[in-house]
Amino acid sequence: MTRMNSTVQAVEETGRTQRKLAPAYEQIKRYVIERIANGTWKPGDAIPSETMLVKEFGVARMTVSRALRELTTERVLTRVQGLGTFVAPREYESTVLEIRNIADEIASRGHRHAARVIRLETSNLQTAISELDLASGPVFHSTIVHLEEGEPIQYEDRYVNPKVFPHYLERDFSLETPNRYMVRLAPIQRAEFRIYAHKPDAQIRRQLEMDIGEPCLMVWRRTWVGEAVATAVRLWHPASRFHLAGHV
């Protein structure tokens, strides 16, 4: 038993020595990974800021930046401009929270996607501000019609948190969908949605080229990046051109 204890102590001491001999950025990477592995930091949790890590390790900011940059590339962390750095979701969590891009759905059917941007603006709509869990506006607002082989199949009415996506209004969403743009910048940590059967108003009915009285399926969805609500969207689909499908 004494020999076994001595062996364990020797292994632990070797590990500590190796950590001390490793470059400073590698020590920071191991520090982060160890806290994720032991459950101190969980998926979606914010990690200490670069400033705090600089003070804790007594190194230059560029050393900390390199460590966090490499961990982000390795998908251990996810960094969101203006909000901080977060523990990335585990792979199985990413699969569960995957929200398919309508352009990809259309392409999977061998069809051509196109988008018609109707509105791209700031808004002080109180309902939208509340849905984004913000104290005040303005927020960003877009309305886009998505077409499959030239036929409109979805009216997207989206509000976006400007703290999470500050350059949203600068994008050309006829070339890249909002979904693809946002997921590319900041992976989703959490989502909630509801599905309703509604009659669209005259504007939506015209944009979707629907008959008077034809119902819509409307999907309402909010998604989170870190602790912030990133976007709230209403997706209107003509009932005759839409169905829900999935597998488990």
UniProtKB/TrEMBL annotation:
<dbReference type="InterPro" id="IPR036390">
    <property type="entry name" value="WH_DNA-bd_sf"/>
</dbReference>
<keyword id="KW-0238">DNA-binding</keyword>
<keyword id="KW-0804">Transcription</keyword>
<dbReference type="InterPro" id="IPR028978">
    <property type="entry name" value="Chorismate_lyase_/UTRA_dom_sf"/>
</dbReference>
<dbReference type="InterPro" id="IPR036388">
    <property type="entry name" value="WH-like_DNA-bd_sf"/>
</dbReference>
<feature type="domain" description="HTH gntR-type">
    <location>
        <begin position="22"/>
        <end position="90"/>
    </location>
</feature>
<dbReference type="Pfam" id="PF00392">
    <property type="entry name" value="GntR"/>
</dbReference>
<dbReference type="Pfam" id="PF07702">
    <property type="entry name" value="UTRA"/>
</dbReference>
<dbReference type="InterPro" id="IPR000524">
    <property type="entry name" value="Tscrpt_reg_HTH_GntR"/>
</dbReference>
<dbReference type="InterPro" id="IPR011663">
    <property type="entry name" value="UTRA"/>
</dbReference>
<dbReference type="InterPro" id="IPR050679">
    <property type="entry name" value="Bact_HTH_transcr_reg"/>
</dbReference>
<dbReference type="InterPro" id="IPR010248">
    <property type="entry name" value="His_ut_repres"/>
</dbReference>
<protein>
    <recommendedName>
        <fullName>Histidine utilization repressor</fullName>
    </recommendedName>
</protein>
<keyword id="KW-0805">Transcription regulation</keyword>
